[in-house]
Amino acid sequence: MLRALRPNPRLLNWFYGFTPPERGAILLRQRRVYIVPTRLGWMFAATLGLLLLGSINYSLALGFVLTFALAGTGFAGMVHTARNLALLTVSARRAEAVFAGERAQFRLELENRAPFDRPAILARHVASGVQMVVHVAAHSVAEAALAVPAARRGRLALGRVMLETRFPLGLFRAWSYVEPDTACIVYPRPERSALPPSTPHATAGAVRALAMGNDDFAGLRGFQRSDSPRHVAWKAYARSDRLLTKQFAGEAAAELWLNWSLLAADLDAEARLSRLTGWVLDAQRRGARYGLRLPGREIAPGRGDAHRAACLQALALYGLP
Amino acid sequence: MSAVRPAAHPLAPELREVTARDLAGLIVALLLVATPHALRAPWWLVLLTLTLYAWRVAVLVNRWALPRRTLLLLVTAAAMLGVWLEYRMIFARGPGIVLLLLFSGLKLLETRTHRDAAVVAFLCCFLIITNFLYSQSIATALLMAAALTAITATLVGCNAPGRAWRANLRSGALLLAHAAPAALVLFLLFPRVQGPTWGLPQDAHAGVTGLSDTMSPGDVAALAQSDALAFRAEFAGPIPSPRQRYWRGPVLWDFDGRSWRAGPARLTTSPPAPQGGSTYRYAIVLEPHQRNWLFALESASRAPAGARFTVDGQIVALQPVRARLRYDMLSVADGQPDPNEREVLLRRALRLPADGNPRARALATEWRREARTDGELLARAIEFFRGAKFSYTLEPPLLGRDSVDEFLFDTRSGFCEHFASAFAFLVRAAGLPARVVTGYLGGDPNPVDGILTIRQSEAHAWVEVHVDGRGWTRIDPTAAAVPGRLDFGLARAVPADAGLPLLMRPQLEWLRGLRHNWDALVHQWNLRVLGYNPERQREFMASLGVERADWRDLAAALSATLGAFALALLAWSLQRHVRPDPVQAAWRRFCSKLAARGITRALQEGPRDYAERAARRLPGAGDAIRRIGALYVDLRYGRDRPRAAIHDLAQRVRALRLA
User: Fold this and answer.
1) What is the rounded CA–CA span in Å between residue B93 and residue B230?
2) Domain assignment present for B456
3) How sure is the predictor about A249, in pLDDT bands with cuts at 50, 70 and 90?
4) pTM above 0.95, yes or no
5) Which of A111, A144, B437, B632 has the fewest CB atoms within 10 Å, measured from its CB?
6) How many structural domains compose chain B?
7) pLDDT digits (tens, 9 = 90+) for A195-247
8) How far apart are CA A183 and CA A95, in angstroms?
């Protein structure tokens, strides 16, 4: 019975004037901006009623002037409240990936093309209640950052965001919903555990070197785009104006395979993904070359931030459409 | 879905604390509306209210806790007791308003959030309207407009906490400016009803100066020291000469030896119709004086709507004049009065107290014995006033029981009521019917708009004597004794500076010029703003072509106009945004130029990346493309937008040639 009362999503889309998710910049057309009086607005209306009665009873000409000036102000306030939101342009910036359990930093760009400023606009993430108030100056762009909790790995779509304002008088509340097409990749929650041994085809020396620990500085080599900035020899750069990368013992030779199927059989899929994520982070921190084997997916050994991101994304989206 | 408890709503007024700036705005607004009240309220209450305001400021500055509610209730109870002791009533206008003033301070001390601040702002609106109960002058209106602006700006400030107060003030003023058209339409078209509708408190009308229906020695002189406005007269054609400007008010019949009283006056449907003379058409705007009579130039020949003639030629309204009243009049000056009068009235016009004023009686008896005709007797009486050296003063000596005797033979100085009273007494004692008429003599035409202004300082009293064959004849004994009074007005007739109102003194010519302009403005204000009543509203509708408009016509006109307003205002506020931003327009043009060359911007591609990609693809225009990209990024994401840079960008995009 309750199910029957639940509104049809297509009907809702028609009502709200858009079909989610919306690509590109979203213009808040007037049709999408709703406005109702606030509790304060009703109180104001009651005040106007009393002032009108007083003016009539005492035949106060200036009482009428006051009452009507206030009524006109309330009316103008309503228009200004709608205007504060209408024809604002909303676009989502790409959100940096996070780990499950952290907060996804969604950033909405609110662009004001009007010659007046738009103060006190509340952006509120409907599902989580995360919110922020922004002030958009005339002819400019402001950013609303919504730190949405990312509980589970995968692709976290932003979902519906409500924009609301009560400026200038607080007598009316105007709001609009947007659902920009943006998502944040949520990596699995990393699990700390010892790295697996290096792959058999690595040389014995390399294994030894790894076992001895890879923090021993071994020399410098030319910088490659895939190198982590953490390994750039900044001091050398300052001296020589050449970008060089620090090499550590064992790094050159060790090749590490992080393999799904080598994990204990009693682990479920999510636990495996967490452990693999922890390994990726660990291997990256040590500067090792590592590859990733998942059922149906293999990433060849590599190094650097782009490689790390590719591995983590593969883990995040494993088994998801 | 895990239930995340939504955080407190940052726009909800009940959850946001007031800031120092909000409080400052509220206190400024409160002080503006309280100032006129403070001049009337008891001093201790004003002091208490100001203390409450100061207390709230101290709470803010010193970060004290707000006072407990029990303490505030105690203060309230004590103040109410004080008000009751002061006024001996609570539910009346005066005490009600001072209590409202006090509550504004108490509410301020309870004000913690923006919701409370809004309540104080609404309370301020009530304090504004209570000011209008006392004064609706231009000055009051301006002061209250300032208060309204402060209230609006404060409300704006509450809703835009981080914004500069100047910007909030500008928003408030802009709101009021946008409100003006709707307010004007509501003012003109909102169906008006003639109040009062639900009855007024007992002290609604108090302390109004003006003529009364009794006259004792010194009354008119006291009134003549007031500069207050009595009424204005607007003539359609020529203006009567100063000698003809007798404005008739209450007619007094009954004398008790000291005071004259009007007594009961019967209404008549057949007004006295003077023959001949010159006819004047004019309108009078009468200040409210809480009495029934209306003033008109002598002799009125037609009563305005809603008013009647009495048998002695007064015009009385059916209701006391509680609001400023405008009526059209038709008068005949210097006409021949109706010679007939009923016997009962003639007998009443001869009645005198049984004793008192023996010397005056003796004088009258002597005149009667020596005069052969009534005309001769009257001439004798007038001659007596002209010959005896009476002095005309605004500060007459006090008179005792035989007031006529004392004036005529001892003090010999008085104001018009002394002359009129003595003359009427003498004539009655000599056997001729006489009555005293009070009203005004004079009225200065304003050189700015030609409207005559009649002030209380021009209050006057004269005598009418019934002469056989001629009817009631006006005789002004003051004019006989002090000839200048008639032609040059009060200012020349009394000794210099003898207690004359400031603006009547002859030396202050320039001040009078200023006063004339101000008067003209005030007259328009009274007529068009304060005097806009149901009747004016019907006239306004008639000027729009709707004859005999009732409330349905008004409501239809009102909703049509406001509906049109709503649409126009909305269209205006939306249309302005649609005009493209010049920076965006230039960028879009740039993108389409590149797209024509096959380099289309990807949806997620930033402007810098896109320009770089295009520059590599088109090395010939590479520098120009990179420059445009950099300019665009600066203008779109930078802090300021210099006009020159916008122009430069547009120029470069226009000049871009992709060969």
Assistant:
1) 25
2) yes
3) low
4) no
5) A111
6) 4
7) 776 654 433 333 334 443 445 565 666 666 666 677 777 777 777 777 777 66
8) 7
Parent domain of A293: 204-316
How many of the other CB atoms lie within 10 Å of CB of B530? 22
Task: Tell me which of A187, A215, A248 is where a domain ends.
Answer: A187
CB–CB contact A173 B5 (8 Å) = no
CB spacing of B118 vs A170 below 8 angstroms? yes
State how far the alpha carbon of B595 is from the alpha carbons of B598, B607, B610, in Å. 5, 14, 11
B198, part of any domain: no
Residues 6+ apart with CB under 8 A from B411: B396, B397, B399
- Token couple for A237: 């750069």
Distances (CA, A) of B625 to B444, B589, B609, B611, B620: 80, 13, 11, 6, 10
| CA-based nearest distance B36→chain A, Å | 15
Residues contacting A185, CB < 8 A, separation 6+: A97, A155, A156, A312, A313, A316, A317
According to the model, what pLDDT value does residue A145 have?
A: 93
3-state SS record for A147-174: EEECCCCEEEECCCEEEEECCCCCCEEE
Residue A158, CA atoms < 13 Å, CB-side half-sphere: 32
Best of A27, A31, A33, A68 to disrupt the B interface by mutation (most B CBs within 10 Å)?
A68
| Three-class SS state of B188 | helix
Is the ipTM value over 0.85, yes or no? no
Domain count, chain A: 2
Mean pLDDT for all residues in chain B: 84
Q: What is the rounded CA–CA span in Å between residue A124 and residue B9?
A: 9
Please give the Cα distance from B332 to B70 (Å, whole number).
Answer: 71
Residue A5 in domain: no
Nearest chain B residue to A123 by CA distance is B10
C-alpha dist (Å) from residue B80 to A224, B95, B349: 86, 9, 54
**Location of structure tokens 């002469």:** B467
* Tens-digit pLDDT profile for residues B146-183: 999 999 999 999 999 889 999 999 999 999 999 999 89
Is B580's pLDDT higher than 70? no
CB within 8 Å of B518: residues ≥ 6 apart: none
Q: How far apart are the first and last CA of chain B?
A: 57
**Highest mean pLDDT of the ranges A222-226, B191-195, B524-528, B559-563:** B559-563
Instruction: Give the domain extent around B559.
Output: 534-578
As a whole number of angstroms, the distance between CA B300 and CA B309 comes to 9
Give yes or no: residues A140 and A209 share one domain. no
B349 touches chain A (CB under 8 A): no
